[in-house]
Write a structure and sequence with these properties.
Organism: Streptomyces yangpuensis
Number of strands: 55
CATH superfamily of the largest domain: Fucose-specific lectin
Structural class: mainly beta
Protein name: CehA/McbA family metallohydrolase
CATH topology of the largest domain: Neuraminidase
């Protein structure tokens, strides 16, 4: 039927189409959807009103226990019928009865369990159903019984045929494909909204009004399993808001959004993962129509909502659905794990608003698109060039730079192995929150954002150190099922080419080796995990040697929990003990941690919490732990913030702390043996620079009361300096490299020895662990590789720490993403505490973990 055009008479003007011209059977038959239908078990049918203009037939039936079932009640429509009305009733205590209808050509409407009846004609239809001619032939009421009673469900269907003169058609308006005059920019929009056409309570006009109130630029109406929303626009198509047609395809095995469908296009939902190729066929069809496929609320535990179709044909995951809940947190964790495997699937956040109490656009997506058009918005979302926010008050600017190249969310910034990258997150509109930066190594940097809502977070990484970086902003206030609330979430910036396979990030296991005083090395071995796990999966570690010859090992697990164990020689380590937080809670998580051992057998632990606050505590000689408490800040403040912290035990029982503060600069302080603290001071930088900044640092105490410091600068080079017993400092000296005048590294460690020398370890540009020593006279030995598990090959690692025992034995802890397993030997991999797995041999450079720079927000 040809299109009709309304005169250009102002608001709502535009092309109009008869609804019937876009009623499509689509790919249902080809996809096997018709085979999902079986005749309903009708026990009795009775007809009344024969010979009149209104004929009603009643069908009684019964459905067995189960949710994954579909049935139809077929009936014939003679010529002259102008309207069909259907009503149902069922035993509500036995379950839910979903409802819809098909005509001889295909889909005509669906309301699920939201309605018990409907009517449709050429001139009008109940929301959820498509107006259009009532043609003669075999029609079918479609039933979706969700039966919870073991005895089944009794139901009744009344079908009424209304005869009479023909009714006029009901044309609808075509939605514009773009908003005129809107070029490249950031646009806000909500992709998951429900109207009265399914189980929502807003009309489309009310949705548009709510979207404008929230400051959105685009929206997608995505009612459950129906195309009727798209053909309901009549004189109310907005000219200043991009409306995208969509459907929430609500299967019994997970829901997905088909976004960007042509108006009138319908996607079937009656299939499951066992129906091989059916979901894939529908997804391919949506893609062929220019649409986007999004797995909606994939980890929602409600029946039928949990996603079971895999992600091979999904463009994005809806990791944030409406008000923040625990299943959203789980979805983000699962998405992050996919990113760590190199799978580039975008994340989105949508409101899933149903009732007027549900705020449209909370959350929503902020998209960098070439234009405010359907094609440009969907293309940008598919590429992940977006971030999600709790409201229009929040804005992020997230970029990664190297040289003159810059990339944002969803973009690629390929780096050579040892090329530095600077990542910056600027936040506005997020008062009293915490911003964090994540890579596959975990949380790398964090900062508090004060009452102004404005803050900046900076981090420097290195080439092959990470595959990606992404950012989150959270508010530390309880929600309905969580202890915090998400404020914003970015898609990642990628640091490797999509054409190249990413490094294997699953094998990040804490390893241990030792070097005897004669210079020989033991075999590198993975440390067992907690609760019988084969290995301890870690993103951070620290070590301290005790006077009795044992070594305290700290491990930061993949969930950023802080754990402690004791290793003695080649014996099996003692059980892992989780370090409790300041309030005694077992859920304390950290960005970074270090440990130092004192002559009396005790240790002092320092740790940077997720909000950047530095805490300290004590492990007594008997193994007991005191509570953690904040490290004092500048005079008059109760806390000190940092992204990286290190501690050294001194011969007199005092401790020296070193850290990169919230301004990115390096600071130093002393904790006296009586518990007093000196003010934090800022040592000078390299050359004439007033301060020093970089991604990594380490400190150790020496027998003469001096301390030695090892740092990595923003140029990636390793430097050393001495703090004399009188508190004065030497200048920074750049260490000589293996074959070059300077030594570059991604991770470092330093430990003093009883003879006055210092042992140094570093992860070099090749991703392997190197070691050397500074002699008491100030001269250095050359760097040499630390042998790997087979005793010869260099050992690849991402982070490394070192300690020296009183007898001169050197102990090294390293996090390795790859290892060589000797023939006949076995080792653990993957899994954090309590998660065991097997390991296969692997080679090649491992990723290098670096810690970033943080610039405080106002009030932090």
């Amino acid at each position: 039927m040809p299109s009709e055009h309304r005169p250009s008479d102002g608001y709502g003007a535009g092309p109009r189409v008869e609804r019937r011209s876009l009623l499509r059977w689509g790919a249902l038959l080809a996809a096997g959807g018709a085979t999902a239908l079986v005749p309903a078990p009708v026990g009795h049918a009775a007809t009344r009103g024969r010979g009149t203009d209104t004929v009603t037939t009643t069908y009684d039936g019964h459905s067995p226990y189960g949710n994954d079932q579909w049935a139809f009640v077929a009936f014939d429509v003679p010529a002259g019928v102008q309207r069909i009305s259907v009503s149902t009733s069922h035993d509500s205590s036995a379950g839910i009865l979903d409802l819809g209808i098909f005509d001889p050509a295909g889909f005509r409407g669906w309301s699920g369990g939201a309605r018990s009846g409907f009517t449709l004609a050429a001139s009008d239809a109940t929301p959820g159903y498509v107006p259009g001619p009532v043609g003669p032939g075999r029609w079918s009421v479609i039933l979706g019984p969700m039966v919870s009673s073991p005895g089944g469900m009794a139901w009744q269907v009344d079908v009424t045929l209304h005869h009479g003169p023909p009714l006029p058609g009901a044309p609808y308006d075509i939605l514009p494909a773009a908003v005129a005059g809107r070029g490249p920019g950031w646009y806000r929009g909500d992709l998951h909204l429900h109207s009265v056409h399914s189980d929502g309570q807003r009309t489309v006009d009310e949705i548009v009004a709510a979207a404008r109130l929230e400051g959105l630029h685009f929206l997608a109406t995505s009612d459950h399993n129906t195309s009727s929303t798209g053909v309901s626009w009549d004189g109310n198509v907005p000219t200043d808001l991009l409306v995208i047609n969509a459907e929430e395809v609500t299967t019994r095995h997970g829901h997905w959004l088909a976004v960007g469908l042509p108006q009138g296009e319908w996607v079937d939902w009656r299939y499951g993962p066992a129906d091989e190729g059916v979901f894939e066929g529908h997804a391919r069809r949506v893609h062929s129509l220019g649409g986007l496929t999004i797995a909606a609320h994939p980890l929602t535990p409600a029946p039928g909502s949990f996603w079971e179709f895999g992600l091979d044909h999904v463009d994005a995951l809806e990791v944030w659905n409406g008000p923040w809940t625990l299943d959203d947190a789980a979805a983000i964790a699962a998405w992050h794990a996919m990113l760590c495997l190199g799978k580039r699937v975008a994340a989105v956040g949508n409101s899933d608003a149903h009732s007027p109490a549900d705020a449209v656009g909370r959350p929503h997506n902020v998209v960098r698109a070439a234009a405010l058009s359907r094609t440009a918005i969907l293309d940008a979302l598919r590429r992940g060039r977006s971030y999600a926010v709790e409201s229009a008050a929040v804005t992020l600017d997230f970029t990664a730079r190297t040289g003159t190249a810059v990339a944002g969310p969803g973009e690629e910034l390929p780096l050579s192995f040892f090329e530095a990258v600077d990542v910056t997150l600027d936040v506005t509109g997020a008062p009293d929150s915490i911003a964090t930066l994540h890579t596959e190594w975990g949380i790398m940097a964090a900062t508090r954002i004060g009452g102004s809502g404005r803050g900046r977070l900076r981090w420097r990484g290195w080439g092959g150190a990470s595959m990606f970086a992404r950012a989150e902003v959270c508010r530390p206030e309880p929600a309905s099922t969580t202890l915090d609330q998400l404020v914003a979430l970015t898609n990642p910036v990628w640091f490797h080419s999509a054409r190249l396979p990413p490094s294997d990030v699953q094998r990040r296991v804490l390893h241990h080796t030792e070097r005897s005083p004669d210079g020989s090395w033991s075999s590198v071995r993975p440390l067992p995990g907690a609760v019988g796990a084969a290995s301890f999966a870690a993103v951070g570690c620290a070590v301290a040697g005790l006077a009795d010859g044992s070594v305290v090992v700290l491990g930061i697990a993949a969930d950023n929990g802080l754990w402690l164990t004791v290793v003695r020689g080649s014996a099996t380590p003692g059980p892992w003990q989780r370090v409790p937080g300041p309030d005694g809670s077992a859920g304390f998580t950290v960005l970074d941690a270090d440990v130092a051992a004192f002559p009396d057998g005790s240790c002092r632990i320092v740790a940077t919490a997720m909000d950047g606050t530095v805490h300290h505590g004590r492990r007594r000689a008997d193994g007991g732990l005191t509570g953690l408490r904040p490290v004092p800040g500048s005079p008059g403040t109760r806390r000190w913030g940092a992204t990286k912290v290190a501690i050294a035990a001194m011969p007199d029982g005092s401790a020296q702390l070193l850290g990169f503060g919230t301004d990115g600069a390096m600071y130093h302080c002393v904790r006296g043996r009586t518990g007093t603290w000196t003010p934090w001071s800022r040592p000078g930088g390299y050359g004439a620079a007033p301060a020093f900044a970089g991604p990594a640092l380490a400190i150790t105490g020496m027998p003469d009361g001096s301390s030695q410091i090892l740092v990595i600068g923003t140029d990636g080079l390793v430097r050393h300096r001495l703090r004399r017993p009188d508190g004065s400092w030497t200048g920074l000296r750049t260490l000589r490299g293996v074959t070059a005048p300077t030594m570059g590294a991604g991770a470092i460690g330093i430990a003093g020895t009883p003879d006055g020398s210092a042992r140094v370890v570093a992860v070099g540009p090749d991703g392997r662990v190197w070691h050397n020593a500074r002699r008491p006279d100030g001269s250095w030995t050359p760097f040499a590789h630390v042998p790997g598990p087979n005793g010869t090959d260099p050992f690849p690692a991402g982070q490394v720490r070192v300690t020296v025992l009183p007898d001169g034995t050197t102990h090294v802890a390293a996090i390795s993403a790859a290892q060589e397993v000797p023939s006949g030997a076995s080792a653990g991999r993957g899994g954090g505490p309590g998660q065991g797995a097997s390991v296969s041999s692997a080679g090649g450079p491992a990723g290098m973990r670096t810690v970033g720079l943080v610039t405080p927000g106002a009030g932090s």
